[in-house]
């Protein structure tokens, strides 16, 4: 695919999961030339960084992987603070803030994206947050995104000079199945992506964490064959 | 000095300059046990990092130096994007956004502080921003701080659960001379600090950048002897 119109630069936060890959496809569809940002913040699921590199390459998009000090993101099951929950029913996934919440993660990611964007003249930032399936994460809520956008425009030279930043959240109100259908239409190869919170050393998905559960259900409901590579026995 | 009450942990953003050293002193005076965060973001004035270490040690406070990817902070005179302005009259310093503005810097710093704070159970974050002498920086304005505090409480588990974060800006409305008088009363050794935007290889101040100019004037107006070590000939 083409890299988009260079006169429309944008920052796309790319985790390497299903949602961010779809978000990248949407940004390109809409004519933007994305600079993808991926973050190594000490997450246990490093497989997502390799997935992010595959996804960016498949779209011909530039990728920058940024390392963040892991000491600022402690106390999460994703950064070594306890086990990743497994086999939770959907009702449990949908209620409360999960142990996989990472302190201030999306705020830090968006802030770094803002700095990167202002540095290169981009005023559009894409993030694949979703308030349907991941309703438990405070930093996936629409009110957080709105507040961030307002803060971003107060924090920056561009914003203070009237060149507003726009935070694009094209998946905010879509269910997982609809996201998969949309991405499939846009040519996303979900075999390249990695959503699992607890993959094995080969990067194969556990099939049992919240993220695997939502992803599996999404493919099932979308009527799309699930291309995820699961660890041996994961779905037993 | 004592490290403060461990039951009152706080994050203090410590650049190693005059303002942040005073802010640290205020946090300790108010009973907080500070964890100081310093950031290496590719700034040309690395002397401030050494100054931050000296200042933290002088207060017996813990210091964590966090490295941030410099690619997210380009286009500033402080990160190699052109020369640091020198010999500007006060009227010029006070008007417009200076070339030393760094994209989204305070937003990134505060966001990382929020992650660090939530990680260790701190809900109080101190930052030495000042809207009097540095009125040109958008991310030193009270409206930015207010918006950030609101966003922080939407972004985090603690905030969503009603444990609000507080952003403390004790210097926000103080002039430089008053800051120096206050810090002197609290035992700050300003000889340890470094404010210069363009120090020489030995860390000696240039005496001519905006930051040096405001600092020199502050000591003069405060009636406090300026302990800054200037480069040979800097004040000629």
Provide a descriptive summary of the structure in words.
The structure is a homodimer of 236-residue chains. Chain A is of the alpha/beta class. Chain A has one domain (5-195): Rossmann fold. Helix content of chain A is 36%, strand content 13%. A 5-stranded parallel sheet of chain A has the order 3-2-1-4-5, sandwiched between helices. Chain A is globular. The N and C termini of chain A lie far apart (37 Å). Chains A and B meet through strand 3, helix 4, helix 5 and helix 6 of A and strand 3, helix 4, helix 5 and helix 6 of B.
Write a concise synopsis of the structure shown.
Chain A has 236 residues and is of the alpha/beta class. Chain A has 8 helices and 5 strands.
Instruction: Return the structural class of chain A.
Output: alpha/beta
Any idea what the radius of gyration of chain A is? 17 Å
- Top CATH class of chain A: Alpha Beta
Main sheet makeup of chain A: 5 strands, parallel
* Biggest sheet, spatial arrangement of strands of chain A: 3-2-1-4-5
CATH topology of chain A: Rossmann fold
Low-confidence stretches of chain A: none
Biggest interchain interface, per-side counts: A-B, 45 and 45 residues
Topology overview:
Two copies of one chain form a homodimer.
Chain A: E1 5-13, H1 18-29, E2 32-40, H2 47-58, E3 62-67, H3 90-94, H4 105-120, E4 124-126, H5 142-155, H6 157-160, E5 166-168, H7 176-185, H8 210-222
Parallel strand pairs in A: 1-2, 1-4, 2-3, 4-5
Helix pairs in contact in A: 1-7, 7-8
């Amino acid at each position: 695919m083409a890299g988009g119109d260079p006169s429309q630069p944008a920052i796309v936060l790319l985790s390497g999961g299903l949602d961010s890959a779809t978000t990248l496809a949407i940004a390109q569809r809409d004519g933007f030339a994305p600079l993808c940002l991926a973050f190594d913040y000490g997450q246990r699921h490093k497989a997502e960084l390799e997935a992010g590199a595959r996804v960016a390459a498949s779209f011909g998009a530039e990728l920058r992987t940024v390392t963040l000090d892991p000491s600022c993101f402690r106390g999460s099951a994703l950064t070594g603070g306890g086990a990743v929950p497994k086999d939770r029913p959907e009702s449990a996934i949908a209620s409360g803030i999960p142990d996989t919440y990472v302190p201030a993660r999306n705020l830090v990611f968006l802030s770094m994206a803002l700095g990167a964007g202002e540095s290169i003249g981009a005023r559009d930032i894409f993030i694949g947050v979703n308030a349907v399936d991941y309703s438990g994460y405070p930093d996936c809520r629409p009110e957080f995104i709105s507040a961030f956008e307002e803060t971003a425009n107060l924090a920056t030279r561009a914003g203070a000079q009237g060149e507003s930043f726009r935070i694009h959240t094209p998946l905010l109100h879509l269910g997982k199945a609809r996201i998969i259908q949309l991405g499939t239409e846009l040519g996303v190869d979900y075999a390249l992506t990695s959503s699992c919170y607890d993959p094995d050393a080969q990067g194969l998905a556990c099939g049992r964490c919240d993220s695997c559960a939502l992803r599996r259900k999404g493919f099932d409901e979308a009527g799309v064959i699930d291309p995820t590579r699961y660890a041996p026995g994961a779905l037993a």
